[in-house]
Amino acid sequence: QVQLVESGGGLEQAGGSLKLSCAASGRTFSGYSMGWFRQAPGKEREFVARIRWSGGSTDYADSLKGRFTISRDNAKNTMYLQMNSLKPEDTAVYYCAASPLDSWTRPLSLREYRYWGRGTQVTVSS
Description:
By secondary structure, this protein is an all-beta fold. Helix content is 0%, strand content 49%.
C-alpha cells in the first residue's frame, strides 16, 4: 500500500524558513514525478514544485522560484521542500503527491498524480 506522509509544517513568522518532508513507502518510485501542492482556505489546490525521482530534474511555480527548493533523498525515500523568506500568503495546507508520469514537456494536472498525502499545515504570521 502506497503511503505519502508529510511532516515539518507549523507556525512561522514572515521572513522565516520551514522544511517540509514527505516520506514515501509502499513501492519503488523510480520513473515517477513527485510534487508539492498547497491549498489555502477558500482557494483551489495549486502546484508548488515537482521533481523527477530518477534524475532529479525540478520544476517550480513561477511565483515561488528562488524562495522554495525541492529535493529528494532516494536512499531515504523522502522528498523535501525547503521554504525560505516565508510570506503570510504562503499559509496553506501543503500536500505531497506522486505521479507515474515522467513527462517534463508539459505540466501535470492534479488528476495525473495518483497518490496523495494528507497534508501538513503551514501558517505564516505577519
